[in-house]
Amino acid sequence: MAWLHFASRLSALLFALHLSTTLALSQFDRAACQYPTEDPFEGCPSNTLLVGPSGNFSTIQSAVLSLPNDTAPYFILVEAGNYTEQVNVTRRGPLYLLGQTLAPNDRTQNLVAVYWAAIAGTGDNAYTSTLTVAPTLNASLTGSGPTGNPVPPGTPFGNTDFRVYNMDFVNDYAPYSDDPSLAVSVSYANTGFYYTGFYSYQDTVYIGKLGNAYFYDSEIAGQTDFFYGFGTAWVQSSLITLRGCGGGITAWKGTNTTFENKYGIYIHDSAVMKVNTSLSIAGHCALGRPWNAQMRAIFANNYLDDSIRPAGYIEWQSTDPRIDYNTTMAEYYDVGPGFNLTGRMDGGVTALLTPEEYEPYSSVERVFQYPFSGEYGNIAWIDFTPWA
Ligand SMILES: *[C@@H]1O[C@H](CO)[C@@H](O)[C@H](O)[C@H]1NC(C)=O
Ligand SMILES: *[C@@H]1O[C@H](CO)[C@@H](O)[C@H](O)[C@H]1NC(C)=O
Ligand SMILES: *[C@@H]1O[C@H](CO)[C@@H](O)[C@H](O)[C@H]1NC(C)=O
Ligand SMILES: *[C@@H]1O[C@H](CO)[C@@H](O)[C@H](O)[C@H]1NC(C)=O
Ligand SMILES: *[C@@H]1O[C@H](CO)[C@@H](O)[C@H](O)[C@H]1NC(C)=O
Ligand SMILES: *[C@@H]1O[C@H](CO)[C@@H](O)[C@H](O)[C@H]1NC(C)=O
Ligand SMILES: *[C@@H]1O[C@H](CO)[C@@H](O)[C@H](O)[C@H]1NC(C)=O
Ligand SMILES: *[C@@H]1O[C@H](CO)[C@@H](O)[C@H](O)[C@H]1NC(C)=O
Ligand SMILES: *[C@@H]1O[C@H](CO)[C@@H](O)[C@H](O)[C@H]1NC(C)=O
Question: Where exactly are the structural domains of the chain?
Fold first, then answer.
């Protein structure tokens, strides 16, 4: 009885949430909303706040802080310009950040950028990030050791549907790899990034515990371990820019869970290229290295330029390889001068997956899980037609 009562209340709540999202979205014409016009709200949903010279908010963070921690969807439209601030999002309900732009399907023409400059030094990496999406500070802490920061039991999940369209996030503490400098940090949250850019040199993208992130037609630029974390990240049709080589492009920590998990970094149909021709890094950059022995990374159907090492992935360190039978450092049909079949075979570190081995990881439906239960199919927050 109690269960039935709870279940019907839950479905009523989910229905109400669905309805309010649908209502707000029915008035949403993304291109019109983001196009700078005399009435900046033209095409925008009703719950839209404006940040910038003609808005009520001069910083993105002040607009975020004005929102209630409820399940109603909100939209923040950001006028063209550079903003120097850290943006932290703790709220549960859907939140979309929209950068004003003349070209909503072309990240190279983005007009909005958020800058911050910090390195970790003796503090936790979490404090450095330009953008953070996590319900609490504690959920966002990286910590140390094979299992990282122990997030307090009972910490609730944070944002269920956070999205960014046409904005860049930069952590420009130093123009080289110095120490962790995050551009984005996601924990206990579902996040989608469309036509965005993330720029730093080390640990640029952190997808932490119970973090889910989908990147589409975006640029991620870095040098050392610049995709790292504990959660699940899927990078689709994007540009991965090498600003040098250090560690690996990816460095993940797997986690023992009571259910099967597919936590890991999945990079699909993308290009991995050095930033410019004056950089001499041919054959030097590793696809990844195991932050712990349960690392899972798959590069599938990508173009790799000649910066990639013949062996592909590498050990963590020769004295501490961190590779065992639970380590997944794999590729599936990558192409380009950075894919050296002889080198991959000789190196003995990179797994070249068969179609059968790849199949369980071959779609977002098969990898994104609901928090706590581990059920698959947590994808309602993904925009599969961002160009529409
Ligand atoms: C600013 O806030 C006021 C009061 O809520 C509102 O009436 C007005 O439309 C807002 N203006 C903009 C540009 O967001
Ligand atoms: C924003 O910063 C970039 C890079 O520093 C600069 O090229 C651009 O002109 C700036 N834009 C504005 C509107 O100030
Ligand atoms: C938001 O609300 C949820 C549910 O009531 C709560 O668990 C959470 O602590 C709140 N978060 C913040 C940042 O207030
Ligand atoms: C954002 O959170 C970080 C900790 O992760 C904190 O150091 C920083 O002050 C926060 N910034 C704002 C604007 O709240
Ligand atoms: C994080 O949670 C742990 C465990 O509850 C606690 O010991 C620690 O003080 C918390 N840290 C912060 C910064 O809240
Ligand atoms: C090439 O990229 C490197 C690394 O980011 C940078 O230091 C250098 O200034 C760039 N050179 C040119 C000519 O853009
Ligand atoms: C997972 O469990 C195994 C066996 O108990 C242990 O050796 C390993 O350290 C654990 N790994 C993590 C990341 O907790
Ligand atoms: C390997 O992974 C399985 C499943 O998560 C776990 O039970 C086992 O303890 C892991 N072994 C090691 C050595 O980490
Ligand atoms: C491919 O890798 C092998 C090492 O296994 C190396 O001898 C060869 O030069 C590499 N080819 C290219 C084009 O880098």
Answer: 14-143+157-367
